[in-house]
Specification:
single chain; about 120 residues; mainly beta; 11 strands; globular
Length: about 120
């Protein structure tokens, strides 16, 4: 069974930075892709950034482009999200997700970590 655990959330002022980490366990092989998603109160979960390990292809939501950077180590099934120049609208619960194979979707999730940006 795949387990994902996030860490690194917290409270930060506008303009500050945080680095989120996520490690996946329970696998004997690398995942196809991993990513970060977030859900603010009263809103649907949205994709923040994803990375496909084999091609190195990265996706960023328009709202975080140029401010957030996704990286990681596919051999360790570990993914990071460096968040700079944080804004109050970035406040949300951030979830790590894993797409195990090319035939699956992002259907494995961590419990989430709270990120709060004060104005």
């Amino acid at each position: 069974q795949v387990q994902l655990v996030e860490s690194g959330g917290g409270l930060v002022q506008t303009g500050g930075s945080l680095r989120l980490s996520c490690a996946a366990s329970g696998l004997t092989f690398s995942t196809f892709a991993m990513g970060w998603f977030r859900q603010a109160p009263g809103k649907e979960r949205e994709t923040v950034a994803t990375i496909i390990w084999g091609s190195g292809s990265k996706y960023y939501a328009d709202s975080v482009m140029g401010r957030f950077t996704i990286s990681g180590d596919n051999a360790k099934n570990t993914v990071y999200l460096q968040m700079n120049n944080l804004k109050p609208e970035d406040t949300a619960v951030y979830y790590c997700g894993a797409r195990i194979t090319v035939y699956s979707s992002f259907d494995n999730w961590g419990p989430g970590t709270q990120v709060t940006v004060s104005s």
